[in-house]
Amino acid sequence: MNVFIDSSLLVEYEKLNRPELLEALMASNHQLFINPIVASEYLYQLIGILGGRSPMSICESGKIGETLGRHDTAVFLSAFEILSIPDKALPMAIDLMKKHNLLPNDAIILASCKLEQVAVLASFDTDFSAACRAEGIQLICEVADFS
Fold first, then answer.
1. What is the mean pLDDT of the chain?
2. Lowest CB count within 10 Å: 7, 49, 66, 138, which one?
3. What radius of gyration do the chain's Cα atoms show?
């Protein structure tokens, strides 16, 4: 099964809040995908998690390199295949924003899933619930949803 991983799973994993779902997916034989939107959201939050301050304050202090040096980020991200964002995703995302009241990044993620034929989205973001149901994408929010 192909599963698109939302940044909420990556961020909660790093916070040690709700690591079970991502751990189970990573231990499975499923193909796991992210895109540049998810990578950007994750890296931004990771800077704050590792640095114990807001990402902007870490940037302003010139400590991004030092902060990210505490984590083997590239190795962690290598567990996921990175999908490019198709050209058709932007116009589709605008339609999805209007139709489902989604924020831009969430709409681009959902459009990417549809265009790349990834039928499963793993996320803790409740904004995806109705949109995924309406768009024929299975939403996984906990381990029991895919077992």
1. 95
2. 66
3. 15
What are the beta bridge partners of residue 104? none
Contact indicator for 4, 122 with CB cutoff of 8 Å:
yes
Query: Which of these, 114, 56, 55, lies nearest to 90 by C-alpha position?
Result: 114
pTM tops 0.70, yes or no: yes
Task: Name the amino acid, one letter, at 52.
Answer: G
Residue with tokens 């790093």: 14
Instruction: Please state, in angstroms and rounded to a whole number, the distance separating the CA atoms of residues 137 and 147.
Output: 17
Q: Rounded to an integer, what distance in angstroms lies between the CA atom of residue 136 and that of residue 16?
A: 31
Give the bridge partners for 33, in sequence order. 4, 81
How confident is the model over 3-57, as pLDDT tens digits?
999 999 999 999 999 999 999 999 999 999 999 999 999 999 999 999 999 999 9
Superfamily of domain 2-40+72-145: 5'-nuclease (3.40.50.1010)
